[in-house]
Design brief:
The protein is about 55% helix and about 0% strand. The chain has about 180 residues and is mostly helical. The protein is elongated, with a radius of gyration of 20 Å.
Length: about 180
């Protein structure tokens, strides 16, 4: 697209327009990291592994039995479906807000900062709600579960801080700017 001499080329998107899509993408992707790493690979917990000590009276499904593991797996699947919807919603929001040079936005510090922020937000909300308030599961059950839960919350706060700092100084990628200049104001 040609620009008039002396005028700035059009920007891909305003930094504020990337906030919501980035946060929603970060929530969904952070949920996937949690579910894949902690639920499936490490098998430290499933969605209902602490309901024998929860605060809301959910029936306990012992994950060490076939029937208990089946029910926990169903609820892990519901959790992953919600994460999937969050990622799709984030992508739809991003697509609707970025109308030019869509490929270039993926190199934007603004977008990646908000994605990290969203991942941290997921950790904080999920950690406070599921681990503390509801008590339906913990990061890693056992005698040190409070420390694992606290570490999860600290990680969430650090991800939010890092995301904020990364996006704060960035601007969406400007295809007409010199290489490396599109990320700074």
């Amino acid at each position: 697209m040609a620009t008039m001499p002396g005028t700035a080329p059009p920007r891909t998107a305003e930094p504020s327009s990337l906030r919501l899509p980035g946060i929603v993408l970060g929530v969904g992707l952070g949920g996937f990291v949690d579910g894949i790493l902690l639920h499936q690979l490490l098998q430290w917990h499933h969605m209902l592994t602490s309901t024998n000590h929860d605060r809301i009276g959910v029936k306990y499904y012992d994950p060490h039995t076939v029937s208990g593991l089946r029910m926990n797996t169903v609820w892990d699947g519901v959790f992953h479906a919600v994460c999937w919807v969050a990622v799709l919603l984030g992508l739809a929001l991003l697509y609707s807000r970025v109308t030019h040079n869509r490929r270039a936005v993926w190199t934007s510090r603004v977008l990646w900062g908000w994605i990290l922020f969203g991942w941290g937000l997921f950790n904080l909300v999920e950690g406070v709600l599921d681990h503390q308030i509801l008590g339906i599961h913990h990061v890693h059950g056992g005698p040190h579960q409070a420390w694992w839960d606290a570490g999860f919350l600290v990680l969430g706060a650090l991800l939010m801080l890092a995301g904020h700092l990364i996006q704060r100084g960035g601007t969406p990628h400007d295809p007409a700017a010199p290489r490396g200049a599109g990320d700074h104001a």
